[in-house]
Amino acid sequence: MKKKILSLALCFCLLTSVAALGGCVGSDRVTLNVYNWGEYIDMSVKREFERETGIKVNYTTYDTNEAMYAKISSGAAAYDVIFPSDYMISKMIAEDMLAELDFSNIPNYSMIGGDYKDLEYDPQNKYSVPYTWGTIVIIYNTKMVDPADVEAKSVDLLWNEKYSGQILMFDNPRDAFGLALSKLGYSMNSDNEAEWREAAAELKKQKPLLQAYVMDQIFDKMSYGEAAIAPYYAGDALIMQEDNPDIDFYLPAEGFNLFVDAMCVMKNSKHKKEAEEFINFMCRTDIAVKNAEAIGYATPQMEAKSRLDSELTSNLTVYPTGDILEKAEAFYMLPKEINQLQSDLWTELKKD
Questions:
Q1: Least buried of 52, 53, 169, 312, by fewest C-beta within 10 Å?
Q2: How far does CA 243 lie from the centroid of its chain?
Q3: Phi/psi class of residue 65: alpha, beta or left (left: φ > 0; alpha: ψ in -120 to 50)?
């Protein structure tokens, strides 16, 4: 009898302890594994989704498309929702890594603008829902850079020897080579091996001038005046400018990358419906507004855009229009042999 009472007491203690931790043994609560770029969501949005749906979100980040792809393709981790860029979406579709979406679970897709649908990377809109779009800009500290050196608004600023040791560069090959190819007057999607080798030579010339190759580290380095010049994404440049009013930025006169990042569901996801529910939630107008205000990137959700501060939506560096867009170039999936060449040249550059 005492053993039974003791057993019941222990069971009660165990249950109350588990309850105190916010869960219970054998809970069937769904957990979504979401993999996104760093500094790319208002975390209150994630918490609001969890409160409204009871679905837990295990949220982790990456800093380049290539790092995300390498981790997923190696089988090192399994994710439900990911946020790749346009050219990487093409690659993952071609390799049968993404699930076809059931848009009956994503009714808010109707509020995504037509300019962001039927694009080259997903021409039939089967696998992705646009999340944000934006441009690559040249960022500089107005207290550290001579105004005469930015008059031309050229990508050459990243190769200016006057600022040796104060220049940052992308720590990913697609963006770095894109800038070098543009500097040489070539397409960022060149399929010419000789042009890629010329671009690699330009990056080697630049390397001694660099303070560092960076991704998310750029926030601290530019915001705190630890570097003078860097290329990065316009949405992040806005956030840095809020932290440091000496920051300014421009679209390179030679041309610039225009990208779309989209939400996709992995083909091996065990929670596809819940993943689509998460995507639909992110497309809801109030959520899209809150998110756009927090991260600074251009939103493709048209109702949300209409509710944003006009000072932001009229900024032609963040929301370029008309003649400005004529200088924009999207990244496309590279031919297999060029993609391998890019990887080899990048490895050589980083080792040299």
A1: 52
A2: 20
A3: alpha
For residues 168 and 212, the answer to whether their CB atoms sit within 8 Å is yes
Give the pLDDT confidence of 25-69 residue by residue, as tens digits: 334 789 999 999 999 999 999 999 999 999 999 999 999 999 999
The answer to whether 18 touches 24, Cβ cutoff 8 Å, is yes
Condensed to tens digits (0 to 9), the pLDDT of residues 239-284 reads: 999 999 999 999 999 999 999 999 999 999 999 999 999 999 999 9
Backbone angles phi, psi at 81, to 5 degrees: -120, 130
Q: How far apart are CA 167 and CA 165, in angstroms?
A: 6
Cβ–Cβ contacts within 10 Å for residue 70, how many? 12
pLDDT value of position 15? 38
> What are residue 134's DSSP bridge partners?
259
- Residue labelled with tokens 């080798």: 197
Beta bridge partners, 266, equal 98
What is d(CA 286, CA 283) in angstroms, rounded to the nearest whole number?
9
**CA 282 centroid distance within chain:** 15
Specify the DSSP class assigned to residue 83.
-
Say yes or no to pLDDT of 166 above 60.
yes
Contact 112, 300 (CB under 8 A): yes
Distance, in Å, from the CA atom of 158 to the CA atom of 148, rounded to the nearest integer, reads 14
User: How many Å separate Cα 346 from the centre of its chain?
Assistant: 20
Q: Look-up: residue for tokens 């649908």?
A: 117
CA distance 44 to 183: 40
Handedness of CA 117, 120, 124, 127 (dihedral sign): negative
What is the band of 16 on the pLDDT scale with cuts at 50, 70, 90? very low
Q: How far apart, in whole angstroms, are the C-alpha atoms of residue 172 and residue 215? A: 8
Cβ neighbours of 173 (radius 10 Å): 22
